[in-house]
Amino acid sequence: MTRVGWVGLGAMGGPMAVVAAKAHTVVAYDINPEVGSRLAASGVAAAPSIADVATGADVLAVMVATEAQAEAALFGPGGAALYLSPTAVVMVMGTVGPVPVRAWGERLAALSVGLVDAPVSGGVARAASGDLLMMVSGSSSDVAAVATLRDALASRAPLVGEVPGEGQKVKLVNQLLCGVHIAAAGEALAFARALGLDAKDCWEIIRHGAAASFMLDDRGERMLDEAFDVPRSAMDIFVKDMGLVVDAAEQAGAWVPIAATAGELFRRGHDQGLGRKDDSAIISVLARGDS
Q1: What is the distance between the alpha carbons of residues 150 and 64, in angstroms, rounded to a whole number?
Q2: What's the pTM value of the predicted model, to 2 decimals?
Q3: N or C, which end of the chain is more exposed by having fewer CB within 10 Å?
Q4: Can you give the residue ranges of the 6-phosphogluconate dehydrogenase NADP-binding domain (predicted)?
Q5: Active site includes 171?
Q6: Does 3-163 match 169-288 in CATH topology?
C-alpha cells in the first residue's frame, strides 16, 4: 500500500485526503491542527509537522492554495525537501502557475525526488466522490509512481505534457473560463433582479437552455440564496487565480480582456471585505455597481 504524505486539508484538500485514505495510508498535515483531528475517523492520520508527513512517504501530495504556501511546505524551514526519501514523488495539485512548478521540479530532481504537476478541478462535491478532473504533466516514471493515487482522486486525468508546468497551463485555461463564468452568472442574475424579475424563477428557466453552464448551475443557487458565509470556494481563490491567468497571458503575449475584467470584479469583492466569503458573493459586487 502506498504511503501518502498529505499537506493541505482545506475545502478541497480535506475531502480529497479522505478519498485517498480509502485505498492508501494517508498521513496529513494542515496549519490548522483541528482540521486533521476531525478527519481521523475517516482514516486520515493527522501529523504534527510536515517533517512527520514527508518522512517515509512514497508520494507527497501538496494541496495548498498559493505558490508561497507550497514553497514553504517544500523548501521552507522544516520543509518536506529535507525529509523526503530519494525516489519519492511530490504531487502538486493546487493552482500555483507553471513557473514555480518547473522550478520546484528542478530543485527536487537534484535530490532524486520526482515531481508530478497535477492541478485539479471539479469542486467540493466531486472532490469528496473521487470524481475530479486532473491535468497531469511529468515524466512517465513519476506519473506511473502516482498512478494509484491519481486514479483514486480523479475520474479523468489526461496526461497533458512530460514536463511539470504544462498541467498548470491547462488549469489556467480552465480557471479563465471558471472565473468568467462565475462573474457572468452573477451579472446575469443581478440583471434579472434589476429588471424586476423573480431571479430564482429566471435562473430555473435559463439554466436548462443554451446559456447553461456548470457555474450558473452550481453558483447560481448560492447567489440567489445568499449562501456566502460557508465558502466552498473563497472569493480570494479567484483573486489569485485570475491574477495568475493575466500574468501568464502577459508573458505569452495573449490578450485576455474578459478575464482581466472578471479578475477586477473579484478584487473589488476582496476590497469590499468579501474575500473569505464564497465566490458566489460576486453577485453582491455586481448588484452594487460602481458605488
Answers
A1: 17
A2: 0.94
A3: C
A4: 3-156
A5: yes
A6: no
Contact 237, 263 (CB under 8 A): no
- For 3-163, which CATH superfamily applies? NAD(P)-binding Rossmann-like Domain (3.40.50.720)
Q: Note down pLDDT in tens along the chain; length 291 residues.
A: 689 999 999 999 999 999 999 999 999 999 998 888 899 889 999 999 999 999 999 999 999 999 999 999 999 999 999 999 999 999 999 999 999 999 999 999 999 999 999 999 998 999 999 999 999 999 999 999 999 999 999 999 999 999 999 999 999 999 999 999 999 999 999 999 999 999 999 999 999 999 999 999 999 999 999 999 999 999 999 999 999 999 999 999 999 999 999 999 999 999 999 999 999 999 999 998 765
CB neighbour list of residue 106: distance below 8 Å, 6 or more residues apart: none
Point out the catalytic residue in the list 169, 171, 240, 277: 171
Please return the burial class of 271, using the count of CB atoms within 10 Å of its CB with bins 0-12, 13-18 and 19+.
exposed
Cell of 68: 508561497
CATH architecture of 169-288: Orthogonal Bundle (1.10)
Are 117 and 167 in contact by the 8 Å Cβ rule? The answer is yes
Q: Which helix (H) or strand (E) holds 246?
A: helix 235-252
